[in-house]
């Protein structure tokens, strides 16, 4: 130890090298966790419809959605059954922000889209909202085992700090429930723009009753209860919506 201390006294450069190396290790240790490895993101859009225009909006969208999907990929389009009234929710996939900007510019210059859809649909809406989300690194999009059914969008407002703080426990809670068969996991998304530290989980069920039965059974499963108990300490609030897929939804 005496020799090492004297070596440091004789070599200020060595001392500085060690200091910088320790700083690098420290920065690595406080990383927010697995990072997004590609540019693909998903835009969540929520439209609130004037009650008296609900049927007309769905009819128009059913007839004209092809004008919109010609420009970019639609992941899914749903009518909100519970957790929102006269509301639709849809997810669009983009390869980059540049692609989304190009799509928006192209739509603005598309006279057919403007005249046949937006000019008619926009007066039917009372409000619009959007969020940008990434798939979490440990999850891939999965299609439901069959067509039809219902979807649940469960959204969790986590405490600040990012996945480095709550990522492992949240993953364990979702994975435990999925592995036990208490719902078919479609995707897990982490917010980038909108409400930060928000995680949204999209589940599929055969019916609302099957979802209720699965949830009731899960509440008695000690494995699920233990995993959720660990995760909930990082949770600030949560909401959910029960979604019915529209006929023109790719996830249907």
Descriptive overview:
The chain is of the alpha+beta class and 252 residues long. The protein has one domain: 2-Layer Sandwich (Alpha-Beta Plaits). The protein contains eight helices and eight strands; from the N terminus they run ααβαββααββαββααβ. The chain has helices at residues 2-10, 12-29, 54-69, 97-108, 111-121, 163-179, 208-218, 222-232, and strands at 41-49, 73-82, 87-94, 125-135, 150-158, 184-193, 198-205, 235-245. Strands 1-3-2-8-5-7-6-4 form an eight-stranded antiparallel beta barrel, surrounded by four helices. The longest helix is centred in the first third of the chain and has 18 residues, at 12-29. The chain is globular and about 55 Å long. The protein starts with a helix and ends in a 7-residue tail after the last strand.
Q: What is shown here, in short?
A:
The protein is of the alpha+beta class and 252 residues long. Helix content is 42%, strand content 30%. It has one domain: Alpha-Beta Plaits (2-Layer Sandwich), CATH 3.30.70.
**CATH topology tier name:** Alpha-Beta Plaits
Largest sheet: number of strands, sense, barrel closure? 8 strands, antiparallel, barrel
Q: Could you name the CATH class?
A: Alpha Beta
Number of helices: 8
Q: What is the alpha-carbon Rg in Å?
A: 23 Å
Q: Report how far the terminal alpha carbons are from each other.
A: 69 Å
Class based on secondary structure composition and strand pairing: alpha+beta
| Corresponding CATH architecture | 2-Layer Sandwich
Instruction: Extract low-pLDDT stretches.
Output: 1-10, 17-33
């Amino acid at each position: 130890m005496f020799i090492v201390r004297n070596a440091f006294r004789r070599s200020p450069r060595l001392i500085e090298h060690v200091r910088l190396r320790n700083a690098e290790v420290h920065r690595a240790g406080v990383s927010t966790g697995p990072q997004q490895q590609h540019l693909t993101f998903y835009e969540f859009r929520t439209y609130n419809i004037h009650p008296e225009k609900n049927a007309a909006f769905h009819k128009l969208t059913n007839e004209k959605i092809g004008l919109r999907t010609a420009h970019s990929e639609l992941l899914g389009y749903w009518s909100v059954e519970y957790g929102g009234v006269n509301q639709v929710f849809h997810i669009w996939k983009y390869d980059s922000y540049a692609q989304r900007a190009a799509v928006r510019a192209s739509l603005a210059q598309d006279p057919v889209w403007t005249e046949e859809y937006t000019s008619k649909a926009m007066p039917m809406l009372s409000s619009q909202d959007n969020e940008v989300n990434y798939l979490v690194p440990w999850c891939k999009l999965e299609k439901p085992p069959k067509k039809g059914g219902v979807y649940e969008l469960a959204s969790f407002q986590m405490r600040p700090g990012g996945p480095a703080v709550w990522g492992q426990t949240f993953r364990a809670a979702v994975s435990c429930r999925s592995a036990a068969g208490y719902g078919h996991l479609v995707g897990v998304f982490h917010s980038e723009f909108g409400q930060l530290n928000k995680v949204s989980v999209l589940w599929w069920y055969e019916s609302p009753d099957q979802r209720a039965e699965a949830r009731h059974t899960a509440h008695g499963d000690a494995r699920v209860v233990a995993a959720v108990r660990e995760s909930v300490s990082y949770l600030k609030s949560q909401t959910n919506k029960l979604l019915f897929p529209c006929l023109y939804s790719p996830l249907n």
